[in-house]
Amino acid sequence: MSSQKDIVSLRRKIQRHEYLYYVADSPEISDQEYDKLLKELQELEAAQPELITPDSPTQRVGGQPLSKFAAVVHQQPLYSLDNVFSPAELAEFDARVRKGLGADEVEYICELKIDGLAISLTYEQGLFTLGATRGDGKKGENVTENLRTVRSIPLRLPEPLDIVVRGEIYMKRSEFNRLEGFANPRNAAAGSLRQLDPRITAARNLDMFCYGVLAGQRTQEEGYQLISRLGFKLNPHRRICRGLAAVQAYVQEWASRRKELDYDMDGVVIKVNSIQDQQTLGFTTKFPRWAAAYKYAPEQAVTRLEAIDIQVGRTGALTPVARLTPVELNGVIVANATLHNADEIKRKDVRVGDEVLIQRAGEVIPEVVGTVRSPDGAGANRSSQFVFPRNCPACGAAVLKDTEDEAVWRCPNADCPARVRGALRHFVSKNAADIEGCGEQIVEQLHRAGLVKTPADFYYLQSADLLELERMGEKSVNNLLEAIERSKNAGLARILFGLGIRHTGQFVAAQLANKFHSIDKLLAASEAELAGTDGVGEVVARALYTALAAPELREILRRLQKAGVVLSDNREQVSDALSGQTFVLTGSLPTLSRGEAEALIKSRGGSVSSNVSKKTSFVLLGENPGSKYARAQKLGVPVIDEAAFKKML
Ligand code: IVH
């Protein structure tokens, strides 16, 4: 029986690694080691449930569903921001501020305006006790249980403080791209946060940037330093700007740099840095007078809607796609845009033949905003309203919705040719089996010719069959067969991801591969064992268990294995050679890309950090190294080159 002290110290240890991974972005241990610690804690707590506390890392997986969210009255209202849309309006804001303060030049702090949802986090005696949405600014909803699942939100602070921290919940684009049926990452974040079942929220990997604290600091920046010390995640791109010119430069810089980010932002927030000055300026009924949001104009264009096609994805989701007269949108020719779903078409009442406004927010695919002009100006001669099909355009099956209030219609036919082709395209894609050179057209040809129906069929293709296909000469056939051969070593995680099992995105696939190491062990796992995988909640485990039991999937796996596709985790075979070792990379390596080197380290149980410290095991040195090399020498950290690194593997 372990003591309360053991549990507390284990918890502290895990909390520290969560911080390093999710907030500081510089993990010191591998994912496997983290999983091991968490599992250890879960086991200790299971044996002594009376020792479970609300701030335990095990409490992040999502508790019991609620029947509704309770209302929360904010201690202090959550204000919104006054918007400016041009350099001239920004200059007017600065002039108002200077006048209000009687100053010639003002020190501002500029930060990115994250496109998510505002929330407020309350800590009592250092314990996270309440998380609320903004609501109307005065009253929001209690979403504490859902926010607990967000790993970058500390459940306990290092000091027993009573504070309220505010910030923005958002979803990374990479996470959004895994999901279907949401218009944009913001909607996906909102939908995920407002789930009555916290286990669903837990599976969505939401994140948070903090931008405000109600405490007695001298400057906004000091407040940020305080909350950063307390373990909250701050956006790294904030900058103190003295005077209008510096602010304008920041605004300009991020107008073009926003594409670098893995999350959406829709502008820049400019705040007066001095808290005393903020108090002097005060608030209007709606906005602080000491802050403004510079909103970037979305990239927009007007063109003609030629047709609306329905695309059927591998999960059966029907997505209406607008076919447009090609038009330039910020340097790129756009001929297609999404109309999201049936409800959106109805709401926007866009019709074929209309002139429509299209826009792109960030990197996301362009969308149709609405009609600007119908053909005759008045609308009398417009084509009739678009009727969303009741049947799948590819196979004719009657379409269904998963639940009444869902926006997405789905084709339920697993043999639907459009779904099958979508599934095959997914299997060969870069992050999955990565069959190089096997693009959309080849997949379509192979499927049409009846040569490939399931992922396993790729591995039984004969050159004689392929040579009969159009535009396939000997050389392309050989290249394709070689690429297929190479993909046999893609590894368990990628193949699992490629099979397109519901709820099994890249992250879950990697977690499963880490935990079970081989397909045989995974197939033998109980529902409870699946649920014990980090990142797999009970809901996902149940769905996964059913999916893995399906005879069709089992048959595909059997044939993959028979064809020599490696269905075990490479990590296990190559051992944990680098287990517990932390690497820092600097400079460019002669043969390996940075990503490849990192993957090799992680696949052998090591971890990669961005900062050199005394704890760093090795610095992997390439050409034109940065300051990390000097630091390594100073701290006496061993430095190795690529050749030495390869030997270690
Ligand atoms: S400060 C009193 N900072 O923008 C100041 N807001 O239009 C209140 N937002 O409701 C907000 N990034 O949801 C602030 N760095 C940032 C922000 C930010 C995004 C959102 C927030 C707010 C809305 C105002």
Overall description:
The mean pLDDT is 90. It is built from 25 helices and 22 strands. The chain has 5 domains: 4-60, Helix Hairpins (Orthogonal Bundle); 83-295, 2-Layer Sandwich (D-amino Acid Aminotransferase, Chain A, domain 1); 298-411, Nucleic acid-binding proteins (OB fold (Dihydrolipoamide Acetyltransferase, E2P), Beta Barrel); 417-562, 5' to 3' exonuclease, C-terminal subdomain (DNA polymerase, domain 1, Orthogonal Bundle), CATH 1.10.150.20; 582-648, BRCT domain (Rossmann fold, 3-Layer(aba) Sandwich), CATH 3.40.50. Helix 1 runs antiparallel to helix 2, helix 12 crosses helix 13 and helix 16 packs across helix 17 (506-516). By secondary structure, the protein is of the alpha+beta class. 2-(butylsulfanyl)adenosine (IVH) binds at residues 79-81, 111, 113-114, 118, 134, 168, 211-212, 269, 288, 291, 293.
